[in-house]
Design a protein that fits this description.
This protein starts with a helix and ends with a helix. It is flat and about 45 Å long. It is 72% helix and 0% strand. With 115 residues, the protein is mainly α. The longest helix is centred in the N-terminal third of the chain and has 25 residues. It has six helices and no strands.
Length: 115
C-alpha cells in the first residue's frame, strides 16, 4: 500500500486534504467564471483523444466553445472580467467533452491490452 493511501485513511489528514481540495475547486471555479469558460475548455488540445473528441462535437457545440475561448482571450487582453450576472449563468462544470475523452482513452487502453 502506498504512503498516500495510508495517510488518507487518517481522519485528520483526510479532512485536511478534503478541505484543501474544496478550496482549490472553488478558486478554479471563480477564475473560470470570470472569463466565462467551462472546465472542459481547458483540456489540452494536443492530446490525441481530446483532438478526436473535438472532432466529434456538433457544429453548435464547437461554435459555442470557440466563442467562449475568443471571449476569454478578449477579456484577458482588456484586463476585464464578465459582469456578475453573466458569470452566474455559466455552468462551468458541465462536461461536454471530458466524457468523450474518457471513452476514447478507455478504447485505446482496451486496444493496447488485448492486442
Amino acid at each position: 500500500m502506498s504512503i498516500s493511501r495510508y495517510l488518507l485513511k487518517v481522519p485528520f489528514i483526510h479532512s485536511l486534504v478534503s478541505r484543501a481540495a474544496h478550496a482549490y475547486q472553488a478558486s478554479v471555479a471563480a477564475e473560470l467564471r470570470r472569463y466565462g469558460l467551462r472546465y472542459d475548455d481547458l483540456l489540452n488540445e494536443k492530446d490525441p483523444e481530446v483532438q478526436a473528441a473535438l472532432a466529434q462535437l456538433t457544429p453548435l457545440e464547437m461554435e459555442l466553445r470557440n466563442k467562449r475561448l475568443k471571449r476569454a482571450i478578449d477579456l484577458d487582453v482588456k484586463k476585464t472580467y464578465l459582469t456578475e450576472d453573466v458569470q452566474e449563468k455559466e455552468d462551468i462544470w458541465n462536461p461536454y467533452l471530458s466524457s468523450r475523452v474518457e471513452k476514447l482513452k478507455q478504447r485505446r487502453f482496451e486496444r493496447q491490452t488485448y492486442d
